[in-house]
Design goal:
The chain has 293 residues and is an all-beta fold. It is 0% helix and 52% strand. The chain has no helices and 25 strands. It has strands at 4-7, 16-22, 27-32, 37-42, 48-52, 57-63, 68-72, 75-80, 85-91, 99-106, 112-118, 127-132, 138-145, 148-153, 159-164, 169-175, 182-190, 198-203, 209-213, 218-222, 228-233, 239-245, 251-256, 276-279, 290-291. The strands form 6 sheets. It has a 5-stranded mixed beta sheet, with no helix packed on it. Strands 1-24-23-22 form a 4-stranded antiparallel beta sheet, with no helix packed on it.
Length: 293
Amino acid sequence: MSHTITRFLDTTYQLAECPTWDDRTNSLLWADIQGRTIQSMAWDSRDITTWHFDNEVGSFGLCDDGRLIVSVWDKVLLFDPKSETHEVLAEIETDRPQTRLNDGKVGPDGAFWVGTMDTSSPREPVAGLYRVDGRGDVAEIRDELQCSNGLAWSPDGAYMYHSDTSPGWIECYAFDADTGSLGSKMLFAQQTNETGRPDGATVDSSGNYWSGGVSAGVVNCFAPNGQLLDAIQMPIQRPTMPCFCGPDLDHLIITSIKQPTDPTAIEPDTLSGGLFLVEGHNQKGLTADRFKT
């Protein structure tokens, strides 16, 4: 399959993540993790609004009342973009200074699913995956992770995908969209440094799972049965997360990490850390689920 890849914005970020389409405001949002901000771009005007936080923003999701649910290091916040105020909904792993909240997404059950990562090197299996509901109750779903990532759900909400970037596995769970309960689990894919260890992910309307291959400069597209359909070679070394956006959900945006100057890098250093538009994929995305406050 032939793809056209272009730089979507001129702006460069140290670590851009969590691109999210808001169908109510017709805007694309993403996090600048190390910049401690969330950016929101009005689709028609391309005007960008920036919201600042006190610590690194791991991920966020949309709420049913117009607010955002935001993971900031070891806290989950409810943030009001209009007043730029927030309240703390939950705290996670406050007793583990070496971990921080990482990839998170609202599921079909209306809860915020968010994992942590070990920030030390080499990473140890001290992180976890959690489910946070509208009351602020936190349930630990999975432990002994190194870098929780790759959350996404099938179009019918019957399956949940989850990955751990460091060992490179992607798992698929049976999922109850009414209760948020997990059923049987299977290994969906096993990735390596060469094939692209899994970072952030999304699912298209056909049920294909798109994964940022952060170690190999690729975006991998898997069929619902785990078959690799496509590996899109990006012009940057470390793509982080794909997102279908735009009024028709047919624009595929990829975020990335800003690489330090490296003569062996596959791209000029000025490209990495940007947002990129991939065309020619012939797929559409799904409307984002909203957190039930």
